[in-house]
Design a protein that fits this description.
heterodimer; A: 163 residues; mainly alpha; globular; B: 131 residues; 5 helices; 82% helix; 0% strand
Chain lengths: 163, 131
C-alpha cells in the first residue's frame, strides 16, 4: 500500500531474508511448533470425530476454524507485543499452520464423497470455508481493536498500514 | 490409533508434524522468494502437493503396502502439517482487502476443487495400480 517505510520482512534484501529464514534456531523452532500443532490437531480428530468413516469431521473442523481465528488475532495483536525473532517461526509458521490442515480436509472430502455421504460432505466443506474466512477476518478485527487501544496515536497509523 | 500404543502414536504424529512443517517452510522460502508474483503461490502449491500425497498414502495404507506406523507418521503428521488451512484463509482475506477480488475468487476456485481432486487422483492411482 502507500506506507513510506515497508515492514521489515519485505525491506530486507533477498539474500538477507533467505539467510534469516534458514537460521538453525529458526528451523528448530519451526519444527517444535509443527510437532505440537500436528499433535494437538490429531488429538482433536481423535476426541471430537466419531470412529465411522462417514462421521462428521468435528475434530479437523474445530482445529481449522480456531486456527484461522488465532492466526488473525495474533497477526494484528500478539505479534506486535512479542518482538522476539523466534516467536513468529514457532507460533505462526510452526504451530498454527501445522495445527490447521488442507490435506486432511481434502482426504475426508473424498472419503465422504465415495461413501455417498453428501449430507455430511456439503455442510463440512461449506462451514470450513465460510467459517475459516470469517473467523480469520474476525480475529484480525479483534486483534486490531485491542492493539489500537494499547498503542498511542503515532503507532496507530503504523498498525493500520501493516494490515 | 490403529495398532500403535499411545506413546508411539504421539511420537509418530510429532515427528511427522515436525518434518512436514519444515518441508513446508523450505518450500515457501523457495517459491515465495523466487517467484515474482502477487499470487499466494506458496500456500496454493503446498496444499495441492500435500493433498495429492495424502491420497496416495491413504490408498497405500488401505492396500496394506504401508503399515500403521507409516500411516500415522505420514498422513496425520507430515501431510497434515505440510498443508495449511489458516494461511489459505489469511491469503484470501488479504487479497480481498487489497481489492484483488478476482484473484481471491480464482485462488478459492483452484484450491478447494483442486485439493479435493488431487486427493482423489492420488487414491485412484494407488487403487488402479495395486489391485
Amino acid at each position: 500500500m502507500t506506507s513510506p517505510s515497508p515492514p521489515p520482512s519485505t525491506s530486507l534484501p533477498l539474500d538477507a531474508a533467505l539467510k534469516r529464514d534458514l537460521q538453525p534456531d529458526v528451523l528448530i523452532l519451526i519444527m517444535i511448533g509443527g510437532a505440537l500443532g500436528a499433535l494437538l490437531r490429531e488429538l482433536f480428530a481423535l476426541w471430537f470425530t466419531g470412529a465411522a468413516n462417514t462421521a462428521f469431521p468435528w475434530g479437523i473442523l474445530i482445529a481449522n476454524l480456531s486456527g484461522a481465528f488465532l492466526l488473525g488475532l495474533f497477526a494484528t495483536w500478539i505479534d506486535g507485543l512479542i518482538q522476539h525473532h523466534l516467536f513468529r517461526p514457532f507460533w505462526e509458521i510452526g504451530f498454527v499452520r501445522s495445527f490447521t490442515t488442507m490435506s486432511t480436509l481434502s482426504l475426508q472430502s473424498i472419503v465422504l464423497i465415495e461413501a455417498g455421504a453428501w449430507t455430511v460432505f456439503a455442510p463440512y466443506l461449506a462451514i470450513s470455508v465460510t467459517g475459516g474466512l470469517f473467523l480469520f477476518w474476525l480475529g484480525e478485527r479483534l486483534g486490531l481493536s485491542i492493539a489500537k487501544e494499547a498503542v498511542g496515536e503515532t503507532d496507530r497509523t503504523r498498525v493500520e498500514e501493516e494490515l | 490409533m490403529g495398532s500403535l500404543t499411545p506413546t508411539t502414536w504421539i511420537a509418530m504424529v510429532m515427528l511427522g508434524g515436525a518434518a512436514g512443517c519444515l518441508l513446508r517452510h523450505l518450500f515457501y522460502v523457495l517459491i515465495d522468494r523466487k517467484a515474482n508474483t502477487n499470487w499466494p503461490l506458496g500456500t496454493l502449491s503446498v496444499n495441492i502437493i500435500g493433498s495429492f500425497a495424502i491420497g496416495l498414502l491413504f490408498g497405500l495404507h488401505q492396500a496394506n503396502v504401508i503399515g500403521d506406523y507409516a500411516n500415522v507418521l505420514l498422513v496425520g503428521g507430515a501431510c497434515g502439517a505440510y498443508t495449511t488451512f489458516s494461511s489459505f484463509c489469511a491469503d484470501e482475506i488479504r487479497l480481498i482487502r487489497n481489492g484483488r477480488h478476482w484473484t481471491a475468487v480464482a485462488v478459492l476456485m483452484i484450491t478447494l476443487p483442486g485439493c479435493i481432486a488431487m486427493s482423489g487422483l492420488g487414491l485412484t492411482l494407488v487403487t488402479h495400480f495395486i489391485d
